[in-house]
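Final report, section 2: Outcomes. Of the targets proposed, Tyrosine--tRNA ligase is the one most frequently requested by collaborating groups, and we therefore present its record in full.
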Amino acid sequence: MDKLELIKRNVQEIVTEVELEELLKKKDKPVAYVGYEPSGKIHLGHVLTVNKLLDLQNAGFQIIVLLADVHAYLNQKGTLEEVRKTADYNRDCFIALGLDPDKTKFVYGSDFQLTSDYMLNVLKLTTTASLNRARRSMDEVGRKMEDPKVSQMVYPMMQAIDIALLGVDVAVGGIDQRKIHMLAREGLPALGFRSPLCIHTPILLGLDGKKMSSSSENFISVDDSEEEIDQKMRKAFCPAGQVNENPMLELFRYHICPRYQEIIFERPEKYGGNLVCRSYEELTKVFSDGQLHPMDLKKGAAKYMSMILEPVRKVLKGN
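The predicted structure is given below as tokens.
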């Protein structure tokens, strides 16, 4: 897989591909970043963007991870002390998931977001965007947006200035970050900064086939035990032969197949013996053809997801 294919793997959108190709030609080590709001458990939605950072790191990018403690505070996720503790937990999880600490720069928002230069640029950017634009930017990521706080309207302005002052070439995030990223692309040039490229990953389904939600508890957390993962998989939505909108297959597409060149489904001989798949395309074919039973797919997903998350569990046990 060449560099461009690696960057484009499993993304929903690149804004824009032409700019990306030009960046790769003129810069040996571009800078890509993701900002994570420390606000609770790390789940597979977060891991999806970590996977993309790993792809970018392997493609020669310098990686910056913003542990956005001030953002979390403004979005009502706890006191500054509470969110800073969560930020440390996030950092440890991301390293355990594979981000090389020697090649990844971890930055706390509070380290630079409280300076006069930063705040002046935020205030300048607020003069370029309407209140409605700021609110629309926060619709997907905000809390209690039926009655938003002023702090939540400042949030997207800060995110744009984060991109500017961190010297970012590429902003990475879930597709729910798109409106904020577009605000940055449009607003930063007027302040004398570069307009960032944007790479957006899809939003994964919850294990029940519905929108992933903390209130529904339909997700896998990185600190789930092997037994908890197995129990969640057994109850997961997985219609026989259905490829589209199947959360089990999404786990293989976005998390398992990028890490393992060969997937082995262990089955008794009376059910056909072990089945080996060497690509996601091969997996979808055998599943849609009925060669692989949904329960065997679930057992395989549980096994490989537990293997992926085992380093995280070890790190957290040691803390």
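The chain has 13 helices and eight strands.
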